[in-house]
Design a protein that fits this description.
This is Phospholipase D-like domain-containing protein. It comes from marine sediment metagenome. The protein has eight helices and eleven strands. It is of the alpha+beta class.
C-alpha cells in the first residue's frame, strides 16, 4: 500500500487493517499520531509516516540498509540529515560520544554487546566530560538475556556499563540495533544510528544510517526504544 499508492481509498484502507488484524480504533490512532492524513478521496501517508515505515523496515531487517538510505535521500534531498556509515559502526558511535560529549541520555539497543578496553575507556571519558555539563547522565541499555552470552569479555562489558550507572535490561526476542545520543537543555547534537551491526565492533562488513536534525523521526526512534524497554526485564546482577 505504502509503495504503490499516493492516496489510499477508505475501503481499501479498512480492508487492509482488517487483513492485518488491527482494531477499529487503529485508523483514528494512526491519524492522531500524524502517520496518516484523511482527505476527501481517502487517506494518504504523511511525510512522518513514510519515514517511520522506512525505519521499521530497516530495524526489522525487511530491507537492505543501502536501499533505505537511498529512499531517505530521495524523499528529502534538501535536508540531508542522513549519513550512510560504511565504517565500523561501534567505533563510529563511541567516537561520536567521545568527541562531542553534549548528551544527557544515551540509549543502546543491541542483542550482543562486547567492547574492548580502549572503547570502554572512551565511553567512560565521554560520560566524565558530559557530567561537567549535567549532574546526572542517564544510560539505558537493552540486550539479550545473559544466558545467551558465551563470551566472558561481553559479560565484563555489561558489568562495566552497570558500574557506570547504566540501567541494563534484557529482551528475549531482541533483534534491533539502535544507538541514540540525546542532548540536554544546554544544547547539542541529537542523533540516532541504526543498522545491521551489534555493539561489538567485530570486523564484519556492515552498513548503518545516522540521523540528526530530524526531531520527529528521532522522537519516534526514542519512543520505539521505550516500547521495547517496557517489554524488557531489568538485569539485576551479571
Amino acid at each position: 500500500v505504502y509503495e504503490s499508492l499516493e492516496v489510499i481509498p477508505s475501503v481499501k484502507m479498512a480492508n487492509f487493517l482488517n487483513e492485518v488484524g488491527m482494531s477499529d480504533d487503529a485508523l483514528s490512532n494512526l491519524a492522531l499520531s500524524g502517520l496518516i492524513v484523511a482527505s476527501s478521496d481517502g487517506f494518504y501517508i504523511s511525510s512522518l509516516g513514510k519515514k517511520v515505515t522506512l525505519l521499521l523496515r530497516a530495524i526489522n531487517g525487511k530491507e537492505e540498509i543501502s536501499e533505505i538510505f537511498r529512499k531517505f535521500t530521495y524523499l528529502y534531498p534538501q535536508l540531508k540529515p542522513y549519513e550512510l556509515i560504511t565504517s565500523n559502526i561501534t567505533d563510529f558511535f563511541i567516537d561520536s560520544l567521545f568527541y562531542r560529549a553534549d548528551f544527557i541520555r544515551i540509549y543502546i539497543c543491541s542483542p550482543w554487546i562486547r567492547l574492548e578496553q580502549e572503547q570502554l575507556g572512551k565511553v567512560k571519558q565521554a560520560i566524565f566530560k558530559a557530567t561537567g555539563r549535567y549532574q546526572s547522565i542517564q544510560i539505558f541499555v537493552i540486550t539479550l538475556p545473559t544466558n545467551r552470552y558465551r563470551d566472558k569479555k561481553a559479560i565484563e562489558t555489561l558489568k562495566e556499563l552497570k558500574q557506570l550507572g547504566a540501567e541494563v535490561m534484557t529482551h528475549e526476542k531482541l533483534h534491533a540495533k539502535l544507538y541514540i545520543s540525546e542532548p540536554g537543555p544546554y544544547g547539542g547534537i541529537h542523533y540516532a544510528i541504526f543498522g545491521s551491526e551489534n555493539l561489538t565492533g567485530r570486523k564484519n562488513i556492515e552498513l548503518g544510517i545516522k540521523i540528526e536534525n530530524d526531531n520527529e523521526l528521532l522522537g519516534n526512534l526514542t519512543n520505539f526504544f521505550r516500547e521495547v524497554q517496557e517489554e524488557s526485564k531489568i538485569l539485576k546482577e551479571v
